[in-house]
Amino acid sequence: MRSKVGLSYDPASQVTSILHQLTANSTQINKADYLYNGVGNRTSLTDRRGSQTFGYDNLDRLTSASHPMLATPQSFAYDPVGNRTTNNSTVNAGNQLTADATHNYAYDDNGNLTRKTLLATGNYTQYTYDAENKLTKVEEFAAGNPTAITTSSYRYDGLGRRIEKVANGQTKRYVYDGEDILFEYDGSNLLEARYTHGPGIDEPIAVTKGSSTYFYHQDGLGSVTDLTDSAGATAKSYAYDAYGNVLESPGTIDQPYTYTGRELDQETGLYYYRARYYDSTTGRFLQKDPVGLKAGPNGYWYANANPVFFVDPFGLMSRAQCDELRARIFRKVGDLIDDLIRYDPVADGIGGHPTRGGKKTSPGGHHNEIQQRQRGIGKDLAKYAKECTKRCNDGPPPPPLPEWVEEVATRPIPDVVYPVPQGPMLMGPVDSVPFPELPEFMVRPTFPRPLIIP
């Protein structure tokens, strides 16, 4: 049975309500209502289970989270670079978690988590990686026993996509459409599931298993809250705490997409975030961010310690970084539009256009400046398209940039008109600027400060 999604926004374009309901009779499947503070952090979420509330420090990091299914609110504290200090957590100089109240942790020279030891029993989990720091094996050991109790293994293709996992004696193989799983096969290469996705990353729409099709419903973070069958009945539902620990998941459908629309590996309890694996119990990735220092001073924390609002589908660039990149693009485009409005190909042939550094251009210099601006914006647009736009769903990830941004960044610039030595020199402004329509279709925007600047 068909369903529809209704979205409501406040004047700041923040989603305030998401309603999933059946199209035929408007029966409600799920509804999520959101409230925000003055800097855009979500302060509450109300759905059919009740209300959740969230608190933050002055760096917009999550410090408290309540949930109707938790007896007491969760609380979090952080060091200056975002490592959790709650639960007796300790980190080394490389921001690697070395111990907390329940476990000890060890790492290899590349910064990958290699062992997690339960203090109460000495039982441990061992992690193995390939040369590209991709997780290839997870083994569970009992203290003093060199033989693994369970083993899970993973394989990847040349693009880094996970194409096979073997766990609990079962093999699953995957065929992709871009970054999304299209088909799932068993170890005998028999089709087990077919997935349909929306235009954004981590936007599952439906899964077909055998003769049955189930439809996904997501909240404002992109987390899967429900799956309904073809009759519109709820076949499976999920509830999560702030960092993605599953609080309940009634229903028998075996499917991977859960918190923020990512794959949860039931065999390990880890989330597969493409470039890395995420442990919701610690709120950290197992591996350092592959982008290095571009990710900021902490290569392990998840979603800039604000998991209620930010997502990181690729285990790479955070939402905060995408927001800053988006704002930077608009600022650059605003400067470019100023230049296009002032550009005079005749006057530029003579030179003397004032630059922002207080100097004046040589003949043709203004034309060159505009081209340089366009090239710089072009690089930012390519980065945004690769690392930000494709990860969007109807939740917080930033939307695609307006079409006019690329149009301005690629608009041809009239050639410079240089003076002809043997004739009268053309001087002064021309009757009309080359781009008279620019001010009409774009008013230079202003932006609030980013919530977190990485």
Protein model, in words:
- The radius of gyration is 26 Å and the shape is globular.
- It folds into two domains: 3-317, no CATH class; 320-410, no CATH class.
- The protein has helices at 319-342, 345-350, 365-387, 403-410, 438-441, and strands at 3-9, 15-22, 28-36, 42-47, 50-56, 62-65, 74-75, 90-91, 97-99, 103-107, 113-118, 124-129, 135-141, 150-156, 162-167, 170-177, 180-185, 191-197, 204-209, 212-218, 224-228, 234-237, 239-240, 246-248, 263-265, 270-273, 276-279, 284-285.
- By secondary structure, the chain is an alpha+beta fold.
- The model is unreliable at 390-396, 423-433 and 439-454 (pLDDT under 50).
- Helices cover 14% and strands 32% of the residues.
Summarize the structure.
This protein is of the alpha+beta class. The chain contains 5 helices and 28 strands.
Topology overview:
Layout: E1 3-9, E2 15-22, E3 28-36, E4 42-47, E5 50-56, E6 62-65, E7 74-75, E8 90-91, E9 97-99, E10 103-107, E11 113-118, E12 124-129, E13 135-141, E14 150-156, E15 162-167, E16 170-177, E17 180-185, E18 191-197, E19 204-209, E20 212-218, E21 224-228, E22 234-237, E23 239-240, E24 246-248, E25 263-265, E26 270-273, E27 276-279, E28 284-285, H1 319-342, H2 345-350, H3 365-387, H4 403-410, H5 438-441
Antiparallel strand pairs: 1-2, 2-3, 3-4, 4-5, 5-6, 6-7, 8-9, 10-11, 11-12, 12-13, 13-14, 14-15, 15-16, 16-17, 17-18, 18-19, 19-20, 20-21, 21-22, 23-24, 25-26, 26-27, 27-28
Helix pairs in contact: 1-3, 3-4
